[in-house]
Prior knowledge:
Helix content: 25-40%
Mean pLDDT: 94
Bound molecules: adenosine-5'-triphosphate
Structural class: alpha+beta
Amino acid sequence: MEEYPLTVPSRSAVRVRVPAKINLHLGVGPLRDDNFHDLATVFHAVSLYDELTLECGPPGIRLILESPDENVPTDERNLAVRALKLLAEHANIEPAVTVRLRKGIPVAGGMAGGSADAAAALIAGDALWHLATPPEKLHELAAQLGSDVPFALHGGDALGTGRGEHLTPLTHPYQRHWVFVTAHEGLSTPAVYAQSDRLRKTTEASDPAAVIKALDEPDPQALADALCNDLQEATLNLRPELHEVINAGEAAGALKGIVSGSGPTCAFLVRDAEHARRVAENLKNYPTTTAFGSVDGAQLVTN
Ligand code: ATP
């Protein structure tokens, strides 16, 4: 009798929605022996989402982009494919899935879109294959896939240490509103870190305490005053035109503009949703999108 792989699932399709992140604080410490930097960062999940759907398919893992983009690989370089492969190996099954990916997170924009897709793939694969993987194990697999992947599983606000994979949740009752200015051309994260190593006079990570304290304050101005990104100097050095973007956003009324992660997306903190709409309108010469945070991490969508 023919043997079927252990992949015959009882669910025919699952859909997962996963948010982008920004770093309210990005403190970059010394380069470690494993070539990562020690970080002291405050992650904040925002309401820009990628959506990933898994369906049973022919043997293997096939990824289809809903809107083809030459900057997003569809082969094993795609982090969602790598995540499914790792999960299948861990569960000792032969994957047979088709992945449909809808990108809502800017690509190579410093908002961890690839990492988000890896987290979404772990949640989706776990559900499709009925694995019931313990959360600690999912976190461990996520950390193997990339420094930002564990946070994309958890969402909310969190202090990230190590290379960003050790998370301490930060809870508070306040919602924050943002305007993002996106760029047509992405930036390579390793190139920004390398430039930062060349430019920074210190290898000490700046202290996230001010942002952590400001998260507990209702007035968004306190958070605006505390926002900090140690990579910003390097990003602005590689993309001097972003100085103009930050100035334009602040002139348009934002409380504060900051480069998101390694950039080139710029994040502008505003007072509320209506203020976000007005600032975005004032920035009509730039590609903008509005969002709020924090939001939950990767979630199954049921409907
Ligand atoms: P990082 O997470 O390294 O800070 P980023 O947030 O700036 O990166 P991503 O959108 O994750 O940017 O894309 C970085 C690169 O990762 C892309 O240029 C692309 O080649 C590759 N990549 C792999 N998988 C994906 C994916 N699922 N979505 C987008 N890019 C991906």
